[in-house]
């Protein structure tokens, strides 16, 4: 047989077949030549690709065992061949992958078996190509590589194929300023993030710039957490930031925290006090701010040293006096630089610090601590953004007056991107509102977000390096960033094919035969590997492409060749439904021919279900102005999803793999394809996120031919908003003042021309921005002001503040707060800062935001760093405890006992009842690993406990005497919801009780179902003061696998949506048959009966229902019976002039009232905080929803009375001391019934009864529930939901648009069905069986 091996000498991958040929040269008659591609020819058949050629040669000589000696070894060899390309390629090898390989080689001489194989040759070839690899860092890898290199075939081929030196390429780098005084080996820089959120790419720029100078000067990088403010520091964010820094491949030389030197800062602060350079000031914050703006000295500025030290000690103790004070540096209250007008350097705070606990009560301001720790830690060059420009003199002042070494401070511009917010507070808002999935959402500018969106670390580094350390402040487009990334991924991204699923058209080529061929994954980089491409007589093509074709036209099928269109079949509307063509492979003229993507329909190579997700900016406005509210520019349509059909290669993708879809663009795999689930039988699609490539024009996709198609076009990608063409520079300083003055004059003329010509406002604003920037540069360079025409302004005396500063000051002074926020500010002085205690949005204006603010500001939940999971704080958990206490005692009266079953469910148990688990399958969370080891079988976290408990029931039940079994457990449940999570309403983990009982006869079982449902009704009505509608679920809505489900349904009128309160299910014998829960029939010997079962549950959703229904625009309203604090006592009228005796009497009376009230079984607490005014306390406890507030002042003590204020209606009542406790108890009961009746009236007025469809949708839009006749059929129910779905979301994007679902069939029917009453569904001819409650729901 004639064999010819052609080697592409410039390809590093060709090393592999070349070595194989050298090893087998005595066993084969083989001719080796050099050419443009690597291939092997045998008897007219050509096999292309380096690894394919190597495999073929190895198979020809089995005795050499290069392809292994068994099927298992051959599989291992295939793995290492793929690994050598995908993991060890020149652009994909990482320190992590090399470390893993080093560990694998520790006990081995060869990668597979006990002799040399293709695996060793391929991996060595990849290692050899990594020119920059330092092998001594990987000792096992170095040993193995040396061993391979010593073998003769390797050395022979290495001499014939020497590695070429990479061609020098001009780097795309920005300007990096040489650091003054920098010496190689002596430079120390630092990166000091605050642990109050995730790192975003602005932080990444700071970190990578510091790393650049660290590496350039072979110096050190200090990584330091700025944790001077205990309110902002979060330990979980420290961990996240450390992980982000590691992802950026930044390796600090030293780690520290600013808090490590708290004692030292205190010593230095006391030194400044003793030197007369610092003073303690008790001026109220607002007054201090006005004094600094007006350049008025504080009345405490000239206090003596001893008095300052005495007040300083009060601050250190955190006393009442200390909390009113701060420590200020005595610099220059007349300074033109506001940062030097006696700035605060220490504040008094009682909050515990995450690392130092309660040890300190005073904490330094960052601007005081930063220069000190920079000096102490040996920082030689402090890189700071231009935002700190005005504070740099303060930095220098601190060091000079403390006699400390001063690092060199270098300014660089912060990174500003269009259509982006970088504020942690604003980013947190997006997370809390559910607009994004989490902090790693691809639309987020966080490091994790952009990496998940497809940004590579190398691409990010190249972008930062391209910016350099310039001071020019620019607002950049994202395109530059993504263009840098494209340079990294384009050479290595495999090419795949995917078609838009909707509208694919068959392409029939009768003479084609079904076969497969190996094609390169990348047309220009053979080292990426090869893929199998299938050919067939039946293909699929894009529908949009098909609409552009014409009969007789020749087009090019990518990866195949030319075909001539012979026939187009169309439907009645003229759309092409199928295409017939004839192969014209001899025609090699491809220029000016339309290129088409296609996929073959082959039974044994099914197409891959794929979902492509495209993202747009979260902010619609390019550059937000200071006065803009970013919430007004939120893009609520920033995510678009397309269903696709993909080729076989997409099944092999792993999470994080980057590919290019032909004619579509680059994508990153976010969720790999998964084979059909054993639970649901459905396969999980491959989810791909589109990676922007920096092009201003989108990549041509289907239907992008020059001529217009008659048919419908493919759905467009997310519309791209074109920002200003060029970023506006606002900080570059030219050296020639006269040239700059002429630029100002020319720009001023341009602004006047635009205004007089009536140009667009955006264009005028942009030109004015450039003018102001140029004037600012001239002022900074010369110290002189210019007018718009370029003339110098005349000033008398001191230079007046610039117009820009005046405008900014005016904006700040004229800014108004929301009314709700302003109303919530505390009364009186002494508070360190203005509070945002109250709600900032009205319930009726933005219900979702209102709900979010209530549950957080009322201290019910704390957000957690795992999306969909929340921390229940004591204020909310106590409500759950009241519910638990009531319900637990009631079910114990029924003979139910509490147990606890494990939360882990075996795969086998979960699959026992497929019908039951089908609805839960997408939400099941699986444990697949233990440490670094894969589990032999995945273990599920319980989505419900039927499959956990019932195998045990089968063991417990042998005889009818073992029944009934009545057990309950209080536990947590995990359901990995993919919908928008909301605390209490829809969470990935929640608390509930679940009762499970088994009975010998059905009658007893069914009776219990209704007894339990009545208890659930009492929970809502007797405890939470919420009327509910008890009823039965329809067949569609019932519990999967059960016989029937009963429910109690609530209603939230402000949103017009029903909400399921609790359910009680009769499971019949479905589960007992599946799990073999049976017993001997006592009446028929030898026969067995299956048990009848029930399950029932209520969850912490109750708390969310209560919050939404009773809350108002002041905050939470707690029903008295579940409030952990039913009465709050607030002493009033305490003044500085009050005698100690009167004060003691007042506090004593308050405490006596609290003791008497608690003794009567009423939960009462007092608020005796002295650093807050009574008004502040009123607002605080109203927000938290305490049912009754009791006010006691000096006059009340003398008169022997108290004042009680009700939370629900604000009514005040003066009560004599003797009657107070009894009256308070009565007032709480009245409040409960008042709340209940208010909600009942609301429910009744929002429930409509109708017998026809005529006004169904209109009534639904009025936020009402609907009682309507219904036949009970599931298809009919689906149509009702479909017909009532609102399709005009643009009318009110905040309003719910989902259709009406059947909430329940009420037990209490509104009226008897009239004879002949038909189902409300307009196209249904069935007779109605009952009235059903329909409505939108949570």
Structure notes:
The protein has 1338 residues and is α/β, with parallel strands linked by helices. The protein is built from 38 helices and 54 strands. The chain has a 7-stranded mixed beta sheet with strand order 16-29-30-31-27-28-17, with no helix packed on it. A hairpin with a 2-residue loop joins strand 36 (925-930) and strand 37. The longest helix is centred in the C-terminal third of the chain and has 29 residues, at 1217-1245.
Strand order of the largest sheet: 16-29-30-31-27-28-17
Helix content: 25-40%
First-residue to last-residue Cα separation: 73 Å
Oligomeric grouping of the chains: single chain
Strand content: 15-25%
Q: How many DSSP-defined strands?
A: 54
The rough form would be described as globular
Q: What is the mean predicted local confidence, pLDDT?
A: 84
What can be said about this structure in brief?
The protein is an alpha/beta fold and 1338 residues long.
């Amino acid at each position: 047989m004639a064999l010819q091996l052609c080697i592409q000498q410039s390809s590093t991958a060709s090393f592999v077949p070349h070595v194989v040929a050298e090893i087998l040269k005595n066993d084969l008659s083989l001719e080796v030549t050099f050419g443009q591609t690597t291939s092997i020819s045998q008897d007219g058949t050509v096999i292309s690709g380096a690894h394919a050629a190597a495999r073929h040669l190895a198979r020809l000589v089995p005795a050499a065992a290069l392809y292994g000696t068994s099927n298992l070894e051959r599989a291992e060899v295939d793995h290492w061949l793929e690994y050598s390309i995908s993991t060890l390629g020149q652009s994909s090898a990482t320190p992590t992958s090399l470390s893993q390989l080093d560990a694998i080689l520790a006990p081995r001489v060869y990668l597979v078996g006990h002799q040399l194989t293709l695996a060793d040759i391929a991996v060595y070839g990849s290692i050899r190509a990594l020119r920059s690899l330092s092998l001594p860092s990987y000792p096992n890898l170095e040993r193995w590589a040396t061993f391979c290199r010593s073998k003769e075939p390797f050395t022979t081929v290495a001499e014939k194929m020497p590695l070429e030196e990479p061609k020098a390429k001009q780097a795309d780098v920005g300007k990096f300023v040489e650091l003054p005084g920098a010496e190689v080996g002596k430079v120390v820089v630092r990166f000091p993030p605050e642990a109050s959120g995730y790192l975003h790419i602005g932080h990444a720029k700071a970190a990578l710039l510091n790393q650049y100078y660290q590496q350039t000067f072979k110096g050190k990088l200090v990584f330091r957490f700025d944790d001077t403010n205990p309110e902002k520091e979060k330990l979980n964010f420290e961990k996240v930031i450390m992980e982000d820094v590691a992802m950026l491949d930044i390796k600090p030389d030293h780690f520290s925290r600013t808090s490590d030197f708290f004692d030292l800062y205190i010593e230095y602060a006391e030194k400044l006090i003793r030197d007369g350079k610092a003073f303690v000031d008790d001026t109220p914050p607002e007054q201090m701010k006005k004094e600094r703006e007006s350049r008025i000295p504080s009345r405490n500025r000239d206090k003596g040293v001893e008095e300052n030290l005495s007040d300083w000690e009060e601050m250190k103790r955190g006393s009442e006096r200390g909390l009113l004070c701060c420590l200020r540096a005595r610099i220059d209250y007349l300074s033109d630089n506001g940062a030097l007008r006696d700035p605060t350097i220490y504040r008094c705070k009682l909050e515990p610090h995450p690392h130092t606990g309660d040890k300190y009560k005073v904490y330094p301001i960052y601007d005081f601590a930063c220069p000190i720790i920079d000096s102490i830690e040996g920082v030689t060059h402090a890189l700071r953004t231009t935002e700190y420009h005005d504070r740099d003199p303060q930095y220098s002042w601190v060091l000079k007056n403390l006699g400390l070494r001063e690092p060199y401070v270098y300014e660089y511009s912060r990174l500003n991107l269009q259509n982006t917010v970088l504020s942690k507070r604003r980013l947190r808002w997006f997370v809390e509102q559910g607009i994004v999935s989490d902090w790693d959402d691809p639309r987020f500018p966080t490091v994790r977000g952009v990496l998940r969106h497809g940004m590579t670390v190398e691409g990010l580094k190249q972008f930062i390096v391209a910016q350099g350390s310039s001071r020019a402040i620019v607002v950049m487009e994202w395109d530059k960033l993504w263009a840098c990334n494209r340079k990294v991924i384009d050479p290595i991204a495999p090419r795949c094919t995917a078609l838009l699923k909707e509208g694919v058209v068959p392409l029939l080529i009768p003479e084609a035969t079904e076969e497969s061929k190996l094609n390169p994954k990348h047309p220009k980089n053979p080292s990426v590997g090869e893929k199998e491409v299938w050919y067939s007589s039946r293909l699929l093509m894009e529908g949009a492409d098909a609409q552009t074709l014409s009969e007789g036209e020749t087009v090019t099928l990518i990866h195949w060749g030319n075909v001539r269109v012979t026939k187009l079949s169309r439907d009645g509307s003229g759309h092409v439904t199928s295409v017939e063509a004839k192969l014209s492979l001899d025609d090699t003229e491809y220029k000016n021919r339309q290129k088409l993507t296609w996929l073959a329909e082959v039974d044994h190579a099914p197409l891959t279900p794929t979902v492509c997700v495209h993202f747009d900016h979260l902010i619609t406005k390019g550059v937000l102005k200071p006065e803009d509210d970013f919430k007004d520019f939120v893009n609520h349509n920033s995510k678009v999803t397309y269903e696709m059909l993909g080729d076989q290669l997409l099944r092999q993708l792993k999470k994080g793999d980057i590919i290019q879809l032909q004619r579509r663009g680059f994508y990153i795999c976010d969720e790999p394809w998964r084979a059909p689930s054993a639970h649901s039988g459905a396969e999980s699609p491959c989810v791909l996120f589109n990676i922007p490539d920096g092009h201003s024009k989108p990549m041509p996709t289907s239907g992008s031919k020059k001529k217009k198609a008659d048919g419908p076009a493919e759905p467009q990608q997310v519309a791209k908003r074109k920002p200003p063409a060029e970023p506006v520079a606002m900080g570059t300083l030219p050296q020639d003042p006269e040239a700059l003055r002429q630029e100002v004059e020319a720009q001023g003329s341009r602004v006047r021309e635009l205004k007089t010509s009536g140009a667009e406002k955006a264009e005028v604003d942009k030109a004015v921005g450039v003018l102001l920037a140029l004037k600012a540069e001239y002022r900074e360079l010369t110290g002189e002001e210019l007018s718009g025409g370029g003339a110098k302004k005349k000033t008398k005396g001191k230079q007046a503040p610039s117009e820009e500063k005046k405008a900014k000051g005016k904006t700040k002074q004229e800014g108004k707060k929301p009314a709700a926020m302003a109303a919530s500010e505390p009364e009186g002085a002494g508070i360190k800062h203005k509070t945002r205690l109250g709600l900032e949005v009205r319930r009726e204006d933005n219900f979702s935001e209102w709900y979010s603010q209530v549950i957080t500001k009322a201290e019910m939940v704390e957000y957690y760093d795992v999306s969909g999971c929340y921390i229940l704080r004591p204020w909310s958990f106590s409500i759950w405890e009241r519910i638990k206490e009531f319900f637990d005692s009631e079910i114990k009266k029924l003979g139910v006992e509490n147990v606890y079953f494990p939360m882990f469910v075996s795969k086998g148990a979960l699959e026992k009842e497929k019908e039951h688990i089908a609805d839960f399958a997408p939400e099941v969370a699986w444990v697949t690993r233990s440490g670094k080891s894969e589990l032999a079988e995945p273990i599920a976290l319980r989505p419900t406990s039927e499959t956990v408990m019932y195998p045990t029931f089968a063991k417990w039940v042998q005889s009818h005497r073992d029944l009934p079994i009545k057990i309950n457990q209080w536990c947590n449940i995990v359901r990995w919801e993919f919908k928008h999570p909301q605390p209490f309403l829809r969470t990935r983990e929640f608390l509930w009780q679940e009762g499970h009982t088994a009975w010998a006869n059905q009658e007893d079982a069914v009776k219990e179902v209704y007894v339990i449902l009545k208890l659930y009704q009492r929970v809502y009505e007797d405890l939470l003061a919420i009327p509910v509608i008890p009823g039965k679920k329809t067949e569609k809505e019932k519990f999967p696998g059960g016989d029937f489900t009963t429910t109690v349904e609530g209603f939230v009128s402000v949103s017009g949506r029903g909400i399921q309160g609790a359910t009680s299910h009769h499971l019949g014998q479905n589960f007992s048959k599946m799990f073999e829960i049976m017993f001997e029939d006592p009446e028929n010997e030898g026969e067995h009966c299956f048990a009848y079962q029930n399950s029932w549950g209520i969850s912490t959703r109750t708390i969310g229902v209560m919050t939404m229904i009773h809350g108002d625009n002041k905050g939470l309203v707690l029903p008295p019976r579940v409030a952990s604090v039913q009465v709050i006592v607030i002493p009033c009228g305490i003044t500085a002039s009050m005698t100690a005796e009167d004060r003691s009497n007042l506090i004593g009376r308050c405490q006596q009232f609290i003791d008497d009230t608690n003794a009567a079984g009423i939960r009462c607490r007092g608020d005796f905080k002295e650093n807050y005014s009574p008004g502040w306390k009123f607002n605080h406890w109203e927000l938290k929803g305490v049912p009754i507030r009791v006010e006691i002042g000096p006059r009340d003590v003398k008169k022997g009375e108290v004042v009680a204020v009700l939370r629900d209606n604000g009514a005040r009542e003066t009560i004599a001391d003797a009657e107070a406790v009894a009256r308070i108890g009565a007032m709480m009961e009245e409040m409960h019934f008042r709340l209940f009746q208010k909600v009942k009236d609301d429910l009744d007025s929002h429930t409509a009864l109708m017998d026809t469809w005529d006004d169904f949708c209109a009534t639904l839009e009025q936020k009402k529930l609907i009682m309507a006749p219904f036949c009970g059929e599931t298809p009919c129910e689906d149509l009702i939901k479909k017909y009532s779905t609102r399709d005009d979301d643009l009318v009110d994007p905040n309003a719910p648009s989902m259709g009406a679902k059947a909430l329940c069939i009420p037990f209490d029917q509104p009226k008897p069905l009239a004879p002949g009453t038909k189902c409300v569904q307009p196209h249904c001819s069935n007779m109605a069986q009952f009235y059903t409650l329909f409505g939108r729901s949570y």
